[in-house]
Amino acid sequence: MALAVAAERVAAEFEYSKEDVNRGVQAFIQQMDEGLGKKGATMSQIPTYVTAVPNGTEKGLYMAVDLGGTNFRVCSIQLHGNSTFSLTQSKVAIPKDLMVAKTSHELFSFLAKQIELFLKVHHEEHYQSHVERRASYVGFGTMRDENIFSLGFTFSFPVQQYGINKGTLIRWTKGFDIADTIGKDVCALLQKEIDALGLPVRVAALVNDTVGTLMARSYTSPGKQGTLLGGIFGTGTNGAYVEKLDKITKLKNQSADAGEIDDSTGEMIVNTEWGSFDNHMSVLPDTSYDRGLDAGSVNPGIQMFEKRVSGMFLGEILRRALIDLMNDPSVPLFSDDDSSRNDISSTTTVASDSPLYKQWGLDTSFLSITSGDSSYGLKATRQALNSDYGVSAASAEDAEAARLIAGAIGKRAARLSAVAIAAVVITTKSLESSAPDGVVDIGVDGSLVEFYPNFEEYIREALRDVPQIGPHGEKRIRIGIAKDGSGVGAALIALVADKKMKGTHETTRSTSFGGFMASFFGGLNRTIRYRA
Ligand code: BGC
């Protein structure tokens, strides 16, 4: 079979039609509702107890760390109080063996060590003076230190939150698998390792990256309306949005250990955990490559939406599709049998140790490279195949085949992302409740939206396919990158937590997370306006 025909056949398997999009949106809305009503639904719809968003006037120096994918980031953030901030950060790849370590200690002590390194490099004076004070401290009990950094911990996995800095891990995602951590309070795990190193840091707040993104977007782009949704389209995918309190009916049956709820804004940010939309596969598209990927993953049957949308998985889907074609003797992919090749001077070979033969061997960045490759003869694609994947002398036809399939996988991911966005916009009635030409604001972050060519345009195309949104509604949806959103968002919530602690010290008033968030934001900030 000619290579181009075979590639088109595979690409067609990833088509996700207008009808599919609309079926997806209906199911998404239904599964969101189900999650608001009960625990244990496919979409967790986790109440965050955050009942308002910032307005840009917040100030102070905070630390934030971000664990959620391939990298661990440590940063310090100076909030200037005028919607701007300065950020210093360091980033380190998380060693693969720590992602599947035997004990939580192995991972969390590594994280604490990175915080120590960061402090030594970027806040040396602060760090040294703390070390000296500790050395000269002769009192009893915990040393009081006014210079302790408050740290917001962005932990981007499904967590049942019980308070501003307390929450237990429900399940790992994105390739992490440390059984010992499930059900444990991740803030306590981190604090323990920070204390073991004697660092001047208090884990003040626990934040999902989507909530951080929503907060950060609201901080940096205050306008008449607040931000509706914070979405991550990166290694993983997820969204947090502003929901009406009375729709979160499961809060009525909450257990005694759940945080107290403030109802003054009538709203709360909900972490959807949409990566697990439709785990039972009622509407999600399914190819043999998706099935193979799922079966070979550490969590088969879970995060089924994420496995079709996010950066951790798209490369692996493409790798499986390419391997299938390479194994088909009638298809001349990366082989010299292609009679249409006119350059017979070089031999196409795939190295026996090529990453293409290894699970997760193909990085999603390859999809971005090839989809954005407009060079003559797809030179950039062939170069990447050669230098990163051990495919020497790939022909233009080879590169075109890889590009075609990669494009189809990326486009399906973007159209699925639109399903999530459309569902949130429709179920919150946001288009109806803002002025006829008003804007619905969405903050996004992650390598896919940032780097995958035309990702947003594909999302928009699919949004226009949904009748409740249509071309007019699509134009009113403003999608903005909230760069470093999770760090800034975590800092903002650490700021809130700090005030809470000081408030508690000064007045011995004990305030709930929700209550405090509301009293803090209620005083300083606009309320979020999405009411019908
Ligand atoms: C996690 C979410 C997170 C998302 C994006 C998912 O795998 O379950 O909590 O927000 O990845 O990082």
Automatic annotation (TrEMBL):
Keyword Nuclease attached: no
Keyword Signal: no
SUPFAM superfamilies linked to this entry: Actin-like ATPase domain (SSF53067)
Molecular functions per Gene Ontology: ATP binding; D-glucose binding; fructokinase activity; glucokinase activity
GO CC, alphabetical: cytosol; mitochondrion
Superkingdom assignment: Eukaryota
BP term (GO), one: glucose metabolic process
Keywords on record: ATP-binding, Glycolysis, Kinase, Nucleotide-binding, Transferase
EC number: 2.7.1.-
Residues covered by the Hexokinase C-terminal domain: 229-496
Known pathway: Carbohydrate degradation; glycolysis; D-glyceraldehyde 3-phosphate and glycerone phosphate from D-glucose: step 1/4
Pfam families noted in UniProt: Hexokinase_1, Hexokinase_2
Limits of the Hexokinase N-terminal domain: 7-219
PANTHER family: GLUCOKINASE-1-RELATED, HEXOKINASE
Family membership: Belongs to the hexokinase family.
Protein name: Phosphotransferase
Organism of this sequence: Extremus antarcticus
